[in-house]
Design goal:
Elongation Factor Tu (Ef-tu), domain 3, 6-stranded mixed sheet, alpha+beta, 6-stranded antiparallel β-barrel, conserved putative lor/sdh protein from methanococcus maripaludis s2 fold, single chain
Length: 416
Amino acid sequence: MDRVIEKKTWTTGKIAGISALGVFIIGVVWLFFFRDNSSKLYVQQNQVTIAEVKQEKFQEFIPVDGVLLPRNTVFIDAVQGGVVEAVYVEDGALLNQGDPILKLTNANMELSYMDQETRMYDAINNLANTLISLEQLKYTRQKEITELYYQIDKLKTDFNRKEGFYKDKLISLKEFEDAERDYKYALNQLNISLNLKRLDSISGVRQSQQINSSMDRMQNNLSLLKENMDNMTIKSPVSGVLSSFNVEIGETKTAGQHLGQIDIPGGFKVRANVDERYIARIFEGQEAEFDLGGKVFQLSIFKIYTNVTNGSFQVDMVFNGEEPENIKRGQTLQVRIKFSGETDAVTVKRGSFYQETGGKWIYVVAPDGTSATKRNIRIGRQNIYSYEVLEGIKPGEKVIISSYEPFGKKEKLIFR
């Protein structure tokens, strides 16, 4: 007997199809919404350098190479050019002010000196003779006036006598008039001589002043000539130690050429070259320091040379307090010029990553240590040891600080 077979609603095939469709839909949803779509790169963990982000004291500074120099130095230059005839001391000698160092000879200069000296002495003698002539003229004029006074006295007496004789009709009118004429003539001559004497006196004073002034100038010129000749022997301008002195007999030295220097005892200074990028941040009184023999010595900038040469400028620093023992001129020191005081900051150790990122991002290692993810950060100050991180990472996190060049800016690194 036939019976009706009921058709099943959930067949094995139908269930299998629905299951497959569900798996497909879940896969699509995961693919588009839940899968990590960031670019990845597998790297060997031992090929990267990892450092921990720290909260610590931070100070901004730059390292420079400083050279020890005497604090006070006097340079020795050749005032006149010539050939080295004699050398009296050697480099490193302890000198007193005025001690001879070397002697130069210059035949042309010596001949010129003798010629000028002769001409000046001739001019001085001529001027001296002119002064003598002025004095002689004064006495000649005085003698002339004295003679006139004598003549007038005689003529006046003769005139008075003849005036009485004429009144008594004892002499002729001609004799009386001749006596009167001679007397008045002598008076006129006296008046002229007195006026000439006054003019000679005024003119003589002016000429004497001019002549004396000219003679003084010539004497000064002679002194300068002699001083120039004396400058052929170079002497120590101050007491101290002779340094940078390397002169041989027979060498030719030109006027103004540097011969050496005198280092005056009394402390050292440090001279350093600083990159021109920092010229606006360097100021007098700025602090610096260096390590030597297990101790830290403090310095401060007291002079800035603003001329930039080959991308750098120079500064001079002096010691604040104690100076190191057994230091020598020319010794090189590693100096740290400070730009700020110590402050609390979040820091990360310096590394090659900065060259690729410019300090704008960094790879932060996951807590489980299996991967590292790219994260934006902001870096502030820096020194030779570390960078100050203003935002983006926290103390205790770990970051990759080695070069990022092999990673091609991947979003995520997975360690093998």
